[in-house]
Every structure is written in structure tokens, then in C-alpha cells.
Amino acid sequence: MNTHQTHIETLALLARTLGNAHRLALLEHIAQGERSVERLAELTDLSLANASQHLQHLKRAGFVQTRREGKNVLYRLGTGPIAPLLVALRDYADHQQARIHDLVADSRSHPARLEPISREELLRRMSEESVTLLDVRSEDEFALGHLPGAINIPVEELERRLAELPAKQNIVAYCRSPYCVLSVDAVAALRAHGLAAQRLANGFVDWKAAGLDVETATRVYDPGP
Amino acid sequence: MNTHQTHIETLALLARTLGNAHRLALLEHIAQGERSVERLAELTDLSLANASQHLQHLKRAGFVQTRREGKNVLYRLGTGPIAPLLVALRDYADHQQARIHDLVADSRSHPARLEPISREELLRRMSEESVTLLDVRSEDEFALGHLPGAINIPVEELERRLAELPAKQNIVAYCRSPYCVLSVDAVAALRAHGLAAQRLANGFVDWKAAGLDVETATRVYDPGP
DNA sequence: CCACCATTCAATCAATGTGTTGAGCATTGC
DNA sequence: GCAATGCTCAACACATTGATTGAATGGTGG
Record's PROSITE patterns (chains A, B) (predicted)? Predict the structure, then answer.
């Protein structure tokens, strides 16, 4: 029984390492490329010593590795299935969000999910007519990768940035995963303003998993001086 | 009221909920079927009140749901992609274990991975001759599902339970995932005792993912009405 | 080999998380 | 209704984690 205890204890330890917003933020920045401690502290708005401590915590769990370059210690992502773990975590979070949203929607007797369109349907439409792709996730998620040609307007800014959208084109909104419900809100808001909008059924994760083109923000890797 | 939580804080909160060995243990027991608080407290060796608190923690994060039956409150697994999350966590842990193991192995100049056999190869052999399948994971993991006809001997008990294995048959040992390295140890131990043993390359996860038959020990979760 | 500087370590305090106790509150059986 | 049962809640003590400071380390570049 002693070894099993150790095994589950190990899992808990790993989960706990991810159980801190600052460490997750550091991890996301590191996922975009090697960064020095100083740069990471800047990016995450942490003190140098604090960032260093969190980074060592991550390192102990194997989520990051280090190497020295000149005066700087550069942190990079560790080996192993880290991405699947983070994706699973986000997927679950999306589902939770959707669940809460559904409760609210039910109480208001909302109709269903505003008939989402599939990836195939989207591809077909993109080849036949012009479609405006609207990415309603946060800016940093958008920067990490999005559908080619998509416009990024986080859902909470949508109402006051409607002007950025072409009035004549059909709009397809999407967010992360099938569970992510931001796009439902977005479509509802767009339609309320008289725009032709639909949502993509399975979101960005599905698109990427299908091996389709993904665009990333201009500056992907900036090692600095 | 500061209910505003950034996306990343939500992720951290969920991860933190999994970041406790007792909660993980509770979750694993619940995954096997509905259980009352009392039973769960027993199974995990926690006080009643403490178990109750941890369960409510899990409930807040949506990992479990409750219903009342007579005097008892029964906890069951929540909806949403919980299993993938736990699998991803375990996979990552397996990889970490393998990494440490490799370091040790390297320092001893061990040979490579004892030529693992693929799933296809295993299936072929199972159809042609008799093969003894040896599951070296812990008993509770075994209970949650294993290859059909497999014998379960946790790797740490292997040395003193060799008698349970048929001496004349070829043995194929496996554990969870490609990263899991317990089976390497097992094969090494078996060969040291003169038995014909090989390890399965990708472990149970791969087998299950391929949609092949899985045997379970205890009754599987029944959602009821 | 020396001075510099990015990073880490150590010590401290505040904040959070955990486990125990005993009280409180439903539900069932009498 | 009343006691018994099963669970939750509240309050406390204790352990762990997190942020801040300032000092130490150790590799670099001169």
C-alpha cells in the first residue's frame, strides 16, 4: 500500500504544481519559446525572486527545463505529454463554464445551441463564399494560434466593437472547444444587432486536431537582446 | 464581491482541487460507482467530516455530483471530460517516472527497453499460441479495467508471487501507458528468474483506445434514473 | 582572477489549506 | 413525536504555501 500512496501522492503533487495561476501563466509564456527569468518575471508581473521560485517549482515537476546562455538562464518547456494535460484541463474548464451557462439559459427558457455548423460545413462555405471568421477568445489565446484570417474580438468587447465586422458577410464565431460557450453568447449578440452569424461546433481545438492551417500572431518568439 | 476570476485562475482552481491525494483517492473510488459518504470515508481512511469536506470541494469543481437515497447521500462522477483529464495527468506522471528511470538505467549502462512488442504483435500471438498476460499495475487500477484474461501482480509484489505464473508459457507484461516503466522492471525480474517475458509497448491506455476488449473486476458505474 | 549581474537561496510573515471536534439538520424507523 | 442515523457546518489548531526582502552564488566577460 505504501507504493500506491506514493503514486497518488505524485499525481497530487503534479496537479498542485499546476494549481497556481502564476505558474500557469509562466508555463504559457514558456510554451511560446525559451525565455529568461527576467523576461518571464516581466511578462507575468512578478518579482524576480518570486518568478524564480515558481519556475523552480515547475522545474521540479518536470514541466520546464533550463539551460544557460551567457549570463541568462533560459527556461523552456519540458519533455513529455504536457500539452495534452493542459488541453484536458482547459477542456474540462470549458465544460464547467458551459454547464453553468446552460443552467442560466434553461432558467430563461433559451432555445438550444443556435444550430452550430461543423468544421466540414465551414470549410465548404469558405471555399464557396466569403465568410468572416470571428475568434471570441482572449487575446493571448488568439496569439497562440487561430483559424486563418480570423478576427479576434474577445466576447466581452464584442458589443462595442461591432463596427470592426463587415456588415454584409456571414459571420462564423468560435472559441476553444466544443464545451466553450462564449461563441453562443457572441452569436446571440450578433444576431441581436441584425448580423448573420453562426457558431462553429467544435471550436479551435478540433480545427487544430484535424491538422488544418493555424495562424499564429506575428511575434512568436522574441528572445530579446 | 470579487467573483471575477480570470480564465487562468479558474484553471488553477481546478488543478488545485486535484492537487490533494485524498481528493484524488476519493475521485477514483467514485469513478468506480456511486458511493455514500460513509463508505468513501472508510475506503480512503478519512474521518467522516473530513471526507465530507473534500467531497464538497470536488463537488464545487464539478468533479462529482450528489443525490440523496434514503438516509445516504450518494456521490457519483460529474459530467464532462473528467476521465481525459485524469488520464492526461497519469500519462504525464508516467512519463516523469520513465524519465527518472532512464537516468538510473543510463548510469548503470543498461541495455535499451527490452524490445517491447506492439499491440498487433500481441494480438497475433494470442491467436496463435497461449500467452500469459501480466498486469503489473496496482490492484485498484487493475479493477478499473484490464486486458482480457490478464493476471494482476503489482510490480513490487512480483518477486514473491512468481509461483502464480505458469512457467511454461510466454509472459507479456504491461502497465498503463507508453511512458509507464513498471513493465520494464517486471520483464527484467522475470527474465532474471528464467522466465520468457516481454513487455507490451504502449500499455493499457493504448489497448483501450484501440477499442479492444476490456475486462473490469467490479461493477461499472450505473447512472440510474 | 576580478567585478559584475542574473539568478537562486534563506528568512520571514501573511494567506490558505487541512484535519479535528462537537454542534446542527435532515430523513428514516419506531 | 422521538431517537437513531448519516451527513454537513462552524470553529479552532496546525501545516503548507506564497510573497517580500536582502544576502549569497556562480558563471561571464573583461
Answer: HTH_ARSR_2, RHODANESE_1, RHODANESE_3
Cβ <8 Å between B11 and A90:
yes
Counting Cβ atoms within 10 Å, is residue B125 exposed (0-12), middle (13-18) or buried (19+)? middle
Q: Are residues A72 and A137 in the same domain?
A: no
Cα nearest neighbour of A8 on chain B: B21
Nearest-by-Cβ selection for A16 from B19, B62, B96: B19
pLDDT at position A4, please?
41
Q: Which of A66, A52, A59 lies closest to A14 in space, CA to CA?
A: A59
pTM as predicted: 0.81
Taking 70 as the pLDDT cut, the residues of chain A under it are 1-5, 103-114, 218-225
| pLDDT value of position B106 | 53
| Chain A residue at shortest CA distance from B27 | A8
- Identify the CA nearest to A150 among candidates A167, A135, A166: A135
| Contact between residue B58 and residue B26 where contact means Cβ atoms under 8 Å apart | yes
Which H or E element spans position B75? Answer: strand B72-77
Among A77, A104, A127, residue at a domain's last position = A77
Gap from B53 CA to D10 C1', in Å? 12
C-alpha pair distances (Å), A45 with each of A26, A29, A64: 10, 12, 19
- Domain of A51: which CATH number? 1.10.10.10
The predicted pLDDT at position B111 comes to 53
**Residue B86: inside a domain:** no
pLDDT tens sequence across B111-170 = 555 678 889 989 998 888 788 999 998 887 888 889 998 999 988 888 889 888 887 788
Residues 6 or more apart whose CB falls under 8 angstroms from that of B188 comprise B114
